[in-house]
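INPUT
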Amino acid sequence: MTHPSDSRAYFFKIDTTIKKIRNVLQKRFNEAGFDLTVDQWVLIDHVARNEGISQNTLAELTTKDAPTVTRILDLLVKKDLVERRMSEEDRRKFNIYLKPEGQKTFETVLPVVKEIRRQGWGQLSEEDYGHFVRIMDSIYQNFSD
Amino acid sequence: MTHPSDSRAYFFKIDTTIKKIRNVLQKRFNEAGFDLTVDQWVLIDHVARNEGISQNTLAELTTKDAPTVTRILDLLVKKDLVERRMSEEDRRKFNIYLKPEGQKTFETVLPVVKEIRRQGWGQLSEEDYGHFVRIMDSIYQNFSD
DNA sequence: AAACACAAGTTGGCTTACTAACTATTGATT
DNA sequence: AATCAATAGTTAGTAAGCCAACTTGTGTTT
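OUTPUT
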């Protein structure tokens, strides 16, 4: 290989790794009896940390687009985990809040997710984390022009 | 941060990076007038390098599941880029081949993809590639038990 | 005040991912 | 030879991603 970027490998490796992570997360959720998809969890996590957040902000933070957020929230509302409250200042907006069931879900699922994060990182070092962040950010940046 | 794995950041960073890559690929495809999704490209690429490959093998190589491969191939067949030929030895199997249009597509798209790979890797070094592979493989491995 | 562009969310269409259930064929077992 | 388990692929349902078009509400301009 004359230059790493000549290989298909790096796109593929990122894709494979994130798929694996998602699979493991979902499988653990199912085993633990959580009736929740990974992306539903991601929204709950952000709402828990930003009570009253708007859908647009939620979309930005999660790098999901607006229609996707709308639809995932629809599901979470149907499950009674989350509610939309009309915003006072701007009637185009909703403020999103956890309902009691949602708060409970957050508290129950969080430790499981933390454990999975630990497992995934394993024996990798602080220095590796530096490399990791630098390389990922660099790829992202190289595409942002 | 007491330990890197305590942070949500690494799942999120991988997710964000692969999304970005996919977006850029798709946008370039569209700009270049290729009527092709990224995943359709991935299958064409593998068929081009493995004429006569079976659907199952295709699924393994791409880490897609069987139904997904079936459906993407359906689309490629409809576009006349690819054909299924009944296997001689095993009548459950198909052998997948590029049609002339598909071969042309492969040759046209490949240089564009190579250029995008180069752009994404940018000034990262051979050594960085080593770190990258080691870290990704390690995460994957940590989840394979 | 009326017209305008812009912003927040929603809806619809198409694509891909995952699971489960299904058909058809093959290969092994007895 | 008949049965049975495993394999290749398909179909159906639900979830999520992307784009484009749309509705409603806001803010600015004139």
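end of record. Residues 19, 22-23, 26, 54-56, 66-67, 69-71, 87, 90-94 of chain B lie near DNA strand D (CB under 10 Å from a C1').
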